[in-house]
Amino acid sequence: MRRLARAGLIGCALWAMSWGGAPARAQEVPPPVIIIVDVQQILRDSLVAKNVQTQMTQRTDRYSKEVSDQENELRRTQDELERQRTVLSADVFNTKMRDFQQRYDALDHGVQATRQALQQAYNDAMTKVENTALQIIADLAAERKANLVVTKAAVLFTAQGLDITQEVIHRLDEKLPSVQLAVPQDAGAGLNKP
Fold this sequence. Notes:
mainly alpha; Protein Binding, DinI Protein, Chain A; 5 helices; about 5% strand; rod-shaped
């Protein structure tokens, strides 16, 4: 039985040699040089991220007020129509009601389109922030000759000096202090005012 096992090992070794000589050596792996970064903290705490969030909040608040004013106007129109229901002929009432419904539908459609445009503008601005942050991270990795960048969320324990998050935030604040939300002109009147 041992002879068969030894013959099998020799056969495997001969087969390996026939495919390229001696068994391949494992490639030399350089010792790890690790840096750790918290991208979520960067996207939350950097000046540019705070600036984008402030712009988003201001524009959303302003637009919400405009929509609320328009909704109040529509409610007043609807109440007036209900009061006139008994006075107006059925045809006139139905025409006014259709006009009211079209105004209501237009407002609803406009609100949805504007919210989508505003969300897209926010996403575009934050993508620019994230891409700039990733470039800074790559630059820091090159400066420190790091061959492994790990997100802080994946780390349970770290030695002091490996986390570069604050350095990335500092460089991002210098390189990209603000990004304007680029909301299309037709997306909503109040959204385009900074």
